[in-house]
Design brief:
It contains twelve helices and 13 strands. The protein is an alpha/beta fold.
């Protein structure tokens, strides 16, 4: 038997969205839970993201009177694989896994709502391939409501900030509407509402966050309330295996190795390898850590550790890709303006480095990023260039700046 320094029922490696959700489930079963986060901040890349979950047939859609079903969602996912039950090169998207997700994800939302986590939906966020059978034009999104991080008390300084740096306390949906403020009276009214919200927040001392930070803030608050223990600056270096089963982990405490027994199991929820150039070169050649907006801890060592003990891996080339720009002199900065909507707007096209337009720019950011890298294999396309005119500048956002505003030289 291994010599352990402490024992819990369940140990979670990493503090992304799935970590705290798993912790809440185990606490509802009266089990002890310890989440180990290697960085000083909680929330992982989930906290940095927009915090949008794709949950078919979810209770928030039902509440809004939007028609959906597990059958429609099953059809939609099947159609994305051309109706094939299983694709040999995509074991992570097997029919069994797809069915499990479609049937269990709405139950997860119901569970989180019952835990007091306030969730809502974005009214207009169609499925990325909504023209496919079973696709939803209304969208199957689930997001967190705005969250006042002051509710976290001493933990508020340890919640990882979102990449969404809005000057006003706005939800993700409201931020998506703001660029039209010069063309819409309803958006002008929204601007006034947001300014009043900002004034009230300053008077009452509230610190609103949106997107992934709101989701993770609410999850963290629920986890702490129910007795989930979280430990920051506690990297895991090893999974302890006995008799063919993972029995615990080796973490770091006070600068020394610390062995923790997990009586019921270990969940590894430690992200990917966006910040590991060697793994990128092996699995996603032609990409760079300098492009990443993932959390700094996304360095892949837990994937390597799981492979060491025999874990199967597949689809390692897959990732969430989106469009960014690297302003001159800021290539190493964490502040990388997202430009997802830039070329999707009128009066703008995307061209490769030979000057040719090579895609329909209105597709999802995933399809966009894949097409750019595929193009780059035959014609230099990283970086690609957005070509736009003065109409675009006056009507639409550019790299985080408002329509019609003066653009920084960079």
């Amino acid at each position: 038997m291994a010599n352990f320094d402490e024992t819990r029922d369940f140990v979670v490696v990493g503090s992304g969205g799935g970590s705290m959700c798993a912790g809440l489930v185990m606490r509802s079963a009266k089990k002890s839970v310890l989440i180990l986060e290697k960085t000083a901040e909680v929330g992982g890349t989930t906290a940095r993201s927009g915090g949008v979950m794709w949950i078919p047939n979810n209770p928030i859609m039902k509440r809004a009177g939007i028609e959906d079903s597990t059958e429609l969602a099953d059809s939609y996912l099947d159609s994305l694989l051309d109706g094939s039950p299983d694709a040999p090169d995509m074991p992570g998207a097997s029919q069994a896994r797809r069915r499990a997700y479609v049937h269990q994800a709405p139950r997860m939302v119901e569970f989180l709502l019952a835990q007091g986590i306030k969730l809502t939906r974005v009214r207009e966020w169609p499925d990325y391939y909504d023209e496919h059978a079973g696709g939803s034009k209304a969208g199957r999104t689930v997001v967190a409501e705005l969250f006042d991080i002051n509710e976290l008390g001493d933990w508020k300084s340890r919640l990882r900030p979102s990449f969404i740096a809005a000057p006003l306390p706005a939800t993700l949906e409201e931020m998506m509407e703001l660029p039209a403020y010069k063309r819409s009276w309803s958006v002008k009214a929204l601007m006034l509402k947001l300014m009043l919200r900002l004034l009230l927040a300053r008077l009452t001392g509230k610190r609103w966050v949106a997107g992934g930070a709101a989701l993770q803030g609410r999850m963290l608050m629920a986890a702490l309330r129910t007795g989930v223990e979280l430990r920051t600056s506690a990297p895991v270096s090893e999974l302890i295996v006995e008799d063919g089963a993972v029995k615990g982990v080796v973490s770091l405490r006070d600068g020394k190795p610390w062995r923790i027994e997990a009586r019921l199991g270990v969940l590894v929820n430690a992200g990917g390898f966006a910040r590991n150039q060697a793994m990128r070169d092996r699995y996603a050649p032609g990409t760079s850590v300098k492009w990443s907006m993932a959390a700094p801890g996304d360095t892949g060592e837990m994937i390597t550790e799981m492979m060491r003990i025999g874990a199967a891996v597949a689809q390692m080339e897959e990732r969430v890709g989106n469009q960014i720009t690297l302003p001159p002199g800021a290539e190493d900065s964490e502040a990388k303006p997202t430009v997802q909507a830039t070329t999707a707007a009128p009066h703008c096209i995307l061209v490769d480095r030979s000057g040719l337009r090579y895609m329909n720019e209105g597709g999802s950011y995933m399809a966009y990023a894949k097409a750019m890298l595929e193009r780059d294999k035959t014609t230099p396309a990283v970086p690609s260039w957005a070509i736009f005119d003065s109409q675009y500048i006056s009507k639409y956002m550019l790299a985080g700046t408002m329509p019609g505003s003066r653009k920084p030289q960079s």
